[in-house]
Amino acid sequence: MADASIEFKGTSFTLSVLHIKTSELADIRADLVKKVAQAPDFFYLVPIVVNIEQLDCSVDYQAVKTLIEELKFTFVGFTGAVDKEQRKLIRDLGFSFVNTSKTDHSQKAAISQEAVAKEIQATAVVPEGNLYTDKVHRGQIRSGQQIYAKDQNLVVIGSVSAGAEVIADGNIHIYGSLRGRAIAGAKGHHKAQIYCQNLEAELVSINGNYWLSESMEQHWGSPAFINLTDSELTSSKLI
Amino acid sequence: MARIIVVTSGKGGVGKTTSSAAIGLGLALKGHKVVLIDFDIGLRNLDLIMGCERRVVYDFVNVINGEATLNQALIKDKRVSSLSILPASQTRDKDALNKENVGKVLEELGKSYDFIVCDSPAGIEAGAMMALYYADEAVVTTNPEVSSVRDSDRILGMLASRSRRAELGLDPIKEHLLLTRYSPKRVEEGEMLSVEDVEDILSIPLLGVIPESQAVLKASNAGEPVILDTESDAGKAYQDVIDRLLGETVEFRFLVAEKKGIFSRMFGG
Ligand SMILES: Nc1ncnc2c1ncn2[C@@H]1O[C@H](COP(=O)(O)OP(=O)(O)O)[C@@H](O)[C@H]1O
Ligand SMILES: [Mg+2]
Q: What's the CATH number where A78 sits?
């Protein structure tokens, strides 16, 4: 019989990995404190896995965990290419040993200066592969009006009326109904997408591929997003 | 400071003049000093609905051109002394008005009136733009049909971008939705948009719902604004509009089709 109240599922997450290169706790602490000071908000309660493969001797595992938690990270466990014995030791001490799906050395530099700078920027503005900033419009866009977000994404907090037109070189997000025309990726950008809370558009277009109302039947009147898959427009349920 | 209210729509024949007359008279009946201005140059309708067409000597254009003073052109209403009408010209065309001079006239009127109600011509050209330019509030008159709603939406865009308030970056014009010629029966039969449909599309606050009513035609033929017909459904609905404009919360009426009572059914009434 299935458990009604719970369900286990596997999902992969991106976790920050802290590589320690010495067993000197004082040194680790000093360097970590410096790192955290650069971006305290970024690191606050961030889950951390500690990689021990670069250590040439053993370390006080409990003390490492305590140190990590003291600096307000969330300690997850240890990882690294180490021998069976050491893994067993770690488990026997009551810590989880996290296996990586593949030995990925490119991720070593997780908390190098550069990576920190990049990651902070990534979470703040620029989703990967999309270098656009947002143009935000508050209020309804009425029939006869047109808004163009040049070299930007367009965020509309309100509805787009029938007879109105919104255009963006990037993505279009409409927190309201889309009843007019929406043209995303206007300058040629096949990854552009259109999101709206209610799809009743006269026309949607991405990178020059367009649909008239009649093609939107499937998600008509519901929250939807539209993108290009192999040069074909596709719509999906948003929530 | 006078409240300048434009009664506008985009589309013609939706009930702007009928509503302007009812609102002007209704506010005056509450003791406010009101002037009604007909911006529909060339058609001149408002004076007929107000029943003062035989008393027009000078008009709005004469005042604009300096051919008459405001006092010469204003017609005092015979029923309510606090109401005046500034009629449109029948002989000039729409381009007779210019922004600067209209502004001067409104400023002058603002000194002695509480409300200036502007009856706008249809369309989105110069005449309608002139009527809405100086407005503080707009009564967006809309029939429950797709084309009328679309035109109202367009006018709302103009209010937000082409008015004096928009140009100067002041607080935006206060928008009111007035749904006119509403027929609950036809809504139920799916022939007309419902109040909810229109509210959903335009998303501005609802000021009133005026039912389709025989009383309106009767009233305009008699030159007696329908708000004076206190027994009629349209008259009552306009009365509610006045109360809401004056800040009261009034429940909406005449939104559902009248069900035939047992007696009328039995006696075929
Ligand atoms: N609630 C109503 N019920 C029935 N007829 C109406 C109603 N409101 C307006 N009308 C009629 O519609 C026509 C147009 O009205 P009018 O006020 O002149 O519109 P507009 O000024 O917008 O052109 C007139 O014949 C008028 O009698
Ligand atoms: Mg009219």
A: 3.30.70.260
Q: Decide if A7 is inside a domain.
A: no
Put simply, whether A235 touches B (Cβ < 8 Å) is no
Encode pLDDT of A25-56 as tens digits: 888 888 888 888 877 777 778 888 998 888 87
Q: Can you give the pLDDT at residue B262? A: 56
pLDDT score recorded for residue B257? 84
* Pair A23, A50 in one domain: yes
pTM over 0.90: no
Do A142 and A207 lie in a common domain? yes
- Average pLDDT along chain B: 93
To test the contact with chain A by mutation, choose from B151, B153, B201 the residue with the greatest count of A C-beta atoms within 10 A, namely B153
* Residue A142 contacts B where some CB pair is shorter than 8 Å: yes
Residue A235 belongs to what H/E stretch? strand A232-237
Is residue A140 located within the same domain as residue A229?
A: yes
- Of all residues in chain B, the one with the smallest CA distance to A160 is B201
CA of B37 to the centre of ligand 1 (A): 18
Map chain B to HEC letters. CCEEEEEECCCCCCCHHHHHHHHHHHHHHCCCCEEEEECCCCCCCHHHHHCCHHHCCCCHHHHHCCCCCHHHHCEECCCCCCEEEECCCCCCCHHHCCHHHHHHHHHHHHCCCCEEEEECCCCCCHHHHHHHHCCCEEEEEECCCHHHHHHHHHHHHHHHHCCHHHHHCCCCCEEEEEEEEECHHHHHCCCCCCHHHHHHHHCCCEEEEEECCHHHHHHHHHCCCHHHCCCCHHHHHHHHHHHHHCCCCCCCCCCCCCCCCHHHHHCCC
According to the per-residue pLDDT averaged within each range, which of A8-12, A22-26, A119-123, B192-196 is highest?
B192-196
Alpha-carbon span B174 to A86, nearest angstrom:
73
Together in a domain, A63 and A28: yes
Residues A110 and A177 in one domain: no
Instruction: Give the ligand whose atoms come closest to the C-alpha of residue B22.
Output: 1
Query: Distance from first CA to last CA of chain B, Å, rounded?
Result: 52
- Residue A122 within a domain: no
Mean pLDDT for A208-214 is 94
For B44-69, what is the mean pLDDT? Answer: 94
> Could you tell me the residue range of the domain that residue A20 belongs to?
14-115
Tell me the average pLDDT across B95-111: 93
- The answer to the question of residue A121 being in a domain is no
